[in-house]
Amino acid sequence: MTAALYARRKQWPLQEVTVHLRHSRIHAADCAECETREGMLDRIDLEIELAGPLTEEQRARVLEIAQRCPVHRTLTSEIDIRARLV
């Protein structure tokens, strides 16, 4: 949604955005770019499909914006969840 709103504001010819997510658990030792070295990690593979005659520069910028959306930032930040019964 964030990427589509950005493209619309820029009046770029983005016609549709399709997002595919795949979740898996991997060994931390198998993740070269991860800080955690022990145990298991959650991995989310994200594929974004952009429909419309965008330039390569526009496509790259839309990807950058998509990685700054509130959901992406939440998932990549430290999360403190406190559950309680009411």
Report the count of strand segments.
2
User: What is the element string, with H for helices and E for strands?
Assistant: HEEHH
Mean pLDDT: 89
Structural class: alpha+beta
Rg, nearest Å? 17 Å
Considering DSSP H and I runs of 4 or more, what fraction of the residues is helical?
Answer: 25-40%
Pick out the low-confidence regions.
none
Report the total helices.
3
Oligomeric form: single chain
The 3D shape can be described as: extended
Strand order of the largest sheet: 1-2
Strand content: 25-35%
End-to-end separation in angstroms reads: 33 Å
Biggest beta sheet attributes: 2 strands, antiparallel
Care to describe what's here?
- There is one protein chain.
- By secondary structure, this protein is α+β, with helices and mostly antiparallel strands.
- It has a domain at 1-52.
- 31% of the residues lie in helices and 28% in strands.
- The protein has three helices and two strands.
- A two-stranded antiparallel ribbon has the order 1-2.
- Helix 1 (2-10) crosses helix 2 (56-66).
- The longest helix is centred in the C-terminal third of the chain and has 11 residues, at 56-66.
- The radius of gyration is 17 Å and the shape is extended.
